[in-house]
């Protein structure tokens, strides 16, 4: 028989798992919201831009997503492209191995917040707070304005789950990436953040031609972190 303290802990853990399972089942059974167009998603994020970081920070910290951001971005190296970079929440987590960083997003208002973050980092701590060479640019993830094999690493956090054409965006990530890695995660909250948590991300990755190197899941599979490689030069 387990000691009382351990019994309570086990019961609490079981209750939490059961409650979380019910919530996910409920979410999955709800009618799916309509797919946002690129313009609708851009407009929604433009409205959220100024308060976005404050709105999501506590949730990301308590859910462990912030730690996942740090873990994923720490793997970047060389010349890096981040798509759907938004307000620049990942900037401070890129390692010294990043020689140049290009941050793209289709919402100019979000990038304006990112620009302030870069400027504040320069004043407060210099290149130690974010890569020394940072370019911010408005761009469409489904038609990236770069030549093939332009980047050593391509990063996306919570972009693929909200794109209007996610497979095409993944193909573009693979096209622009040298033999190396592209990484991405997702979450839910489509009603507010425009992110479809129940998309088959791994299926989309396979369809795009990227090869999965590793996969980690949390929150009963509704949050996924993938490391991928472009399958270039391989026989079809």
UniProtKB/TrEMBL annotation:
Output the CDD domains linked to this UniProt entry: AdoMet_MTases
Q: Which Gene3D superfamilies match?
A: Vaccinia Virus protein VP39 (3.40.50.150)
Q: Which Pfam families match?
A: Methyltransf_11
- A GO MF term: S-adenosylmethionine-dependent methyltransferase activity
Q: InterPro entries given for it? A: Methyltransf_11 (IPR013216), Methyltransf_Superfamily (IPR050508), SAM-dependent_MTases_sf (IPR029063)
Ranges where the Methyltransferase type domain occurs: 81-182
The residue range of the signal peptide is none
Q: Spell out the protein name for this chain.
A: Methyltransferase type 11 domain-containing protein
The scientific name of the source species is Emiliania huxleyi (strain CCMP1516)
């Amino acid at each position: 028989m387990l000691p009382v303290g351990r019994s309570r802990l086990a019961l609490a853990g079981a209750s939490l798992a059961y409650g979380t399972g019910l919530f996910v089942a409920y979410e999955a059974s709800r009618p799916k919201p309509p797919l946002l167009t690129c313009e609708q998603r851009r407009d929604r994020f433009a409205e959220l831009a100024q308060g976005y970081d404050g709105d999501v920070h506590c949730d990301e910290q308590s859910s462990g997503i912030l730690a996942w951001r740090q873990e994923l971005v720490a793997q970047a190296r060389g010349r890096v492209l981040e798509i759907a970079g938004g307000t620049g929440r990942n900037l401070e987590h890129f390692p010294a191995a990043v020689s140049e960083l290009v941050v793209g997003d289709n919402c100019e208002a979000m990038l304006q917040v990112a620009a302030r973050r870069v400027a504040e980092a320069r004043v407060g701590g210099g290149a130690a707070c974010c890569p020394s060479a940072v370019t911010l640019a408005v761009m469409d993830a489904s038609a990236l304005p770069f030549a093939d094999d332009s980047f050593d690493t391509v990063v996306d956090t919570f972009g693929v789950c909200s794109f209007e054409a996610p497979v095409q965006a993944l193909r573009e990530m693979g096209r622009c990436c040298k033999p190396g890695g592209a990484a991405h995660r997702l979450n839910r909250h489509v009603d507010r953040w425009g992110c479809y948590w129940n998309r088959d991300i791994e299926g989309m990755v396979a369809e795009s031609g990227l090869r999965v190197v590793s996969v980690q899941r949390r929150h009963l599979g509704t949050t996924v972190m993938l490391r991928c490689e472009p399958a270039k030069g391989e026989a079809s």
